[in-house]
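Exercise: predict the structure of this protein bound to zinc ion.
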Amino acid sequence: MSKATPKRTWFADSTPPGERAWHDLVISESVAGRDITIPVYVWKGKEPGPIVSVTAAVHGDEINGTGTIRSIITDPPFELQRGTLVMVPVVNILGFELHSRYLPDRRDLNRSFPGSASGSLASRLAHSFFNQLTKHCDYGIDLHTAAVRRTNFPNVRADLSIPELHSFARAFGTELVIDGKGPKGSLRSAATKEGCLTVILEAGEVWKVESSIVEYSIRGITNCLRYLKMLEGKPTLPAYRLETDAATWVRASVGGFLEFHVGPGDIVHEDDAIATSWNLGGEEVETIRAPRDGIILGMTTIPSVAPGDPVVHLTFPKKGSISRIERLVDNLDDESLHERTRGDLSRSFVVTEHDDQEE
Ligand SMILES: [Zn+2]
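Solution:
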């Protein structure tokens, strides 16, 4: 499944088959005129095969992927047989240093690909990374989290109109697969256009390495490598699979302080209470309700909201009902990764049952 065209030489060539090595990739220069490098881990199977990149912290504050890569390197969950795995724990090293999504010039690196050699700092950095690494890869897995003040139930996003990328995205094994080309300038859209078929994982929160998210991510990466026959075995299947491009934000209509009734990954029905909003005097000011049946893809982690603030991101099938998904989830073991993740992600805020009797 690797590219038919002959490979150009690149830095990973110096790592022999069956071995692993760190490389320092020079991607920019500091104000003091010194090289700015990022560490890249190259792991080669004994036999030839596809070249897959796993990237993290393209947004410098989204470090669940950084923790995932560290875990794969320090405690390998598999033995790579074929192909090359290229792992980049931090792409946006300048944002990472500042615990920030953005680069010091306030640009978003993930809107700057494929970049240009004569553009802004962000554009040059993107260009340097893209040419030295991305262009040499056949597949990409880019690890992200929700933006600040939000969390996401793990979901993979990819352009499902490309059959080979569709299969790769499914192989990852998240329940939720969101169809779309990705924003202009994102690593995944530029990489895919260049022939490096790339998915992103959106999972968890910024500034954290969350245990169930790391587990989800490692399972997904393992599944993708199995799918590409870089490892023995078949990808594991998700609890259910919803592939859709349909999602809507449910917003607060008045200012208030929220008591949540749902958590990430929960299934809701039309009119179910999502959150009760209180004023600071303890009076109920609003019950925020689900506009339709769906699954909580992401939600705010801050209970204080102004009118128009997003509360939950609700995804739903383009056609048909969610009753089959609901039956599958009802039968899941509490110890399944899906259920543990659902529990873990809602543990950091108060979630109560809504009492409809009071109304
Ligand atoms: Zn991101």
